[in-house]
Amino acid sequence: MQIKFLKSIVEDLVGKQSVPIIDLLVDKKDVNEFQIAKKLNLTINQTRNILYKLSDYGLVSFIRKKDKKKGWYIYFWTLNIYQSLDLLENNLKKELEQTENESKSRKENRFYICQTCSIEVSEENALLNDFTCPECEEIYELADNQEFIQQLSKKINKLKKEIELVATEKGKEGEKLDKKKQRKIKRVEKENSDKRKTARALKAKLNKKIVKKKPVKKLKKKTIKKTAKSSKPKKKK
Ligand SMILES: [Zn+2]
Questions:
Q1: 3-state SS, residue 76
Q2: From ligand 1's centre to the CA of 123, what distance in Å?
Q3: What is the pTM of this model?
């Protein structure tokens, strides 16, 4: 289900030729771009162009590593499923809004059609042309709005179902991300507490050392004081 959705987004955004990229990225992490290029039978530049476009929409993200032998950077790509579903949901919602507006307009307005030219015009334009087609001089007929309204209503139902499915999938992905985030927070917290423990241990060690050194310091201070006193008159000169 999810893959079908992802493919339809990619097709909308960057064209049909890049759809197979989804099969290579789905359920994987950090996929080598040279492998993608090889499997898609594209050059590395063509592959990167597609991936950059997808990354502009936030659908994929990358990490890069330097190839020690060749000295250049290799990019490793990961699909952002949550962002992809979010984008798809927004697109479907926009389409639903447009379709609902169209349906509303069909219900409220009359349209006229020239059967010869298969051209449809609004009532306003039909009136301007005296209900006669300017192309072939055929008289306009009233268009059958009912048929349109039925088609649009089918489309509206389909879109609503799709939006519901995408929203469910998005919710699941969101939960996964939250869990990942929670794990990350816990890991960072543990790391920080470990760091604090080491810092405390280090501090304790240093304190011990300072305590041990104390008698030496006292001696030094005395000698400093003496020299300071003796040096005072010299300063006045
Ligand atoms: Zn006509």
A1: strand
A2: 15
A3: 0.67
